[in-house]
Write a structure and sequence with these properties.
The complex is a heterodimer of chains A (267) and B (282). With 267 residues, chain A is α/β, with parallel strands linked by helices. Chain A has one domain: Rossmann fold (3-Layer(aba) Sandwich), CATH 3.40.50.300. Chain A has helices spanning 58-65, 89-94, 112-122, 128-138, 155-167, 185-202, 213-219, 237-243, 248-259; strands spanning 20-29, 32-42, 47-51, 73-78, 81-82, 95-98, 173-177, 205-210, 222-227, 230-236. A six-stranded mixed beta sheet of chain A has the order 6-7-8-3-9-10, sandwiched between helices. A four-stranded antiparallel beta sheet of chain A has the order 2-1-4-5, covered by helices on one side. In chain A, strand 4 (73-78) and strand 5 form a beta hairpin. Chain B has a single domain, classed as 3-Layer(aba) Sandwich (Rossmann fold), CATH 3.40.50.300. Chain B contains ten helices and eleven strands. Classes of the chains: A alpha/beta (267), B alpha/beta (282).
């Protein structure tokens, strides 16, 4: 059983205020209605996954929650406050995001040191030197990486830098948009292990978006399955594993994931 | 015509290296295999040399890259000593290649249909009208509904899955004997991926084509291909029957399999790969 298993599974609707609470979230881009009444809750310290195909709206949910998408309607609470359409600076200390492509998300002309110093400068946090050293050490990179440029790093090392940048502000919520889909499986395993270590050490709440059900199943206790802007089913991973899901679309995803599974871990 | 028993591709001791100002970087180091009318997978991580192998077969490794081989042959014809004109005639006509990301490999300022027709006219003496007919038929063959409408769309107007089908249509319109597919489905969703694989599978079975399927996705190639070559640091670690990939013996293969999360086999921590320096030596 996973550490993030079923003990935190079903969130009662009237339980304690969740770390992330989304109710009736709608997003329209022109005439396209990309999120239709999306609702879900994530408890503090929980890992929640959103799976679905391209265009299902899963990344749009993350963009709303991270304050990158100012046009939405509905009720969203995150890290103890209602989400505003133009979030204040303090919001970004609480909520940070790691993007899919570590080749596109780090400034190519800034050193790793400058990349990590920027969030500290923006939020007026001192002691940058020590914090940068620690942030790098936390993601398993030694100080030698500080004065390198992103192009001198491998994909996995860059994604570690992106995680360090997100965590250097010590946020309580970490949003992950396909954090390993651009990486080799061996590097994916290292990054996923790192995320789990950091999560348990810092009591982070994680929202992981991925098209890979096996990755979500490994990292999260509960999952929302998205299709065409709607969460068609919300389930415990353990339950999904056992029943294969109730919704036809979920069943299709689970079947697709099993078709390409080797069952090699058992050998 | 060579007899049917002649392999489509024969490679012995293939080496691809790059000359940089300070040293020589070896991307492929002594690769050997033969390809028949089958689906052969080459798997490995970034930098293992799998894409360079595909490019070397097509002579798409420009200087400072250099391709050396004891034997590099297509249906018994030696590619290494062949003149450039003959090599060019084969490329795209008898051997063609589908690249990973249709967003970057299609011409953004030409409608997709015209690009397919252009590929046809490069290799066949045909008028514009005939090429258009062929292109429309090819779009239909890769299961694009309304080929007439899609013909006039530009690459930015089609989805990733449709773009990849357009690429495949373009590569197959010359009716090649060998198709090299470099990560043809890794930018696609699982359901679209299944459709693309179906199309490739039908082409191999119905037309007797040989397919070299380059991928980093072990479960996928195990389900789809006939044989699998596992590469690391430019070398072959082992060659396996695809169905028994999960019984691979080499520690590198085992390591790769071990790091995969599996929905049905939850584990508290994923295994990570310990790289043995001995793998990079002979």
């Amino acid at each position: 059983m996973l550490r993030t298993g079923s003990e935190k599974a079903a969130m009662p609707d009237n339980g304690p205020a969740p770390m992330i609470g989304v109710e009736g979230l709608n997003v329209r881009f022109g005439s396209a209605h990309v999120l239709k009444d999306v609702s879900f809750r994530v408890a503090a310290g929980e890992s929640y996954g959103l799976v679905g195909e391209s265009g299902s709206g899963k990344s749009t949910v993350l963009r709303v929650l991270s304050g990158l998408n100012p046009s939405w309607s509905g009720r969203v609470g995150i890290a103890g406050a209602a989400l505003r359409h133009r979030p204040p600076k303090s919001f970004f200390r609480q909520v940070q995001m790691v993007f899919q492509d570590p080749f596109g998300s780090l400034h190519p002309r800034m050193t790793i040191d400058a990349i990590l110093a920027e969030p500290l400068a923006i939020h007026g946090i001192g002691d940058a030197d020590r914090r940068i050293e620690r942030a790098l050490a936390d993601v398993g990179l030694d100080g030698g990486f500080r004065f390198r440029y992103p192009h001198q790093l491998s994909g996995g090392q860059r994604q570690r830098v992106a995680i360090a940048r997100a965590l250097i502000l010590e946020p309580s919520v970490l949003l992950l948009d396909e954090p390993t889909s651009a990486l080799d499986v061996s590097i994916q395993a290292e990054v996923l292990n790192l995320l789990q270590d950091l999560k348990s050490r810092r009591d982070l709440t994680m929202l992981l978006v991925s098209h890979n059900l096996a990755v979500v199943g490994h990292m999260c206790g509960r999952v929302g399955v998205m299709n065409r802007g709607v969460i068609v089913e919300e389930a415990d991973i353990a339950e999904l594993r056992e029943t294969g899901g109730r919704n036809p679309y979920t069943r299709e995803l689970v079947a697709a994931s099993r078709r390409v599974s080797l069952g090699a871990g058992a050998a | 015509m060579p007899p049917e028993t002649t392999p489509l591709i024969e490679i012995a001791n293939l080496r691809v290296r790059f000359h940089t100002p300070t040293r020589i970087v070896e991307a492929v180091r002594g690769l050997s295999f033969t390809l028949g009318r089958e689906k052969l997978a080459i798997v490995g991580e970034s930098g293992s040399g799998k894409s360079m192998t595909g490019r070397a077969i097509l002579d798409l490794v420009p200087w400072p890259g250099e391709v050396l081989a004891d034997r590099l042959a297509f249906r018994g014809e030696d590619l290494a000593t062949m003149d450039r004109a003959r090599r060019r005639a084969l490329r795209g006509r008898r051997i063609s290649m589908v690249l990973q990301d249709p967003k970057f490999s299609l011409n953004p300022v030409m409608s997709v249909g015209r690009q397919i027709a252009e590929a046809y006219r490069t290799h066949h003496r045909a008028g514009a009208a005939e090429a258009r007919e062929r292109a429309l038929a090819m779009l239909e063959a890769v299961q694009i509904r309304e080929p007439g409408r899609v013909y006039d769309l530009y690459p930015h107007e089609v989805s990733g899955g449709m773009g990849q089908r357009v690429m495949i249509a373009m590569m197959l319109i010359g009716e090649p004997d060998v198709l090299i597919a470099d990560e043809p489905t890794s930018a696609l969703d699982v359901t679209v991926q299944a459709q693309i694989l179906d199309i490739l599978d039908r082409l191999v079975t119905e037309r007797g084509m040989g397919l070299i399927f380059i991928s980093h996705d072990l479960p996928l190639v195990s389900a789809f291909c006939d044989r699998v070559i596992v590469m690391y640091a430019g070398r072959v670690m082992e060659t396996l029957d695809a169905r028994s990939l999960h019984q691979g013996r080499h520690p590198y293969t085992r390591g790769l399999l071990g790091c995969l999360p599996d929905l049905d086999l939850p584990k508290p921590r994923l295994a990570t790969l310990t790289r043995d320096p001995a793998w990079t030596e002979a």
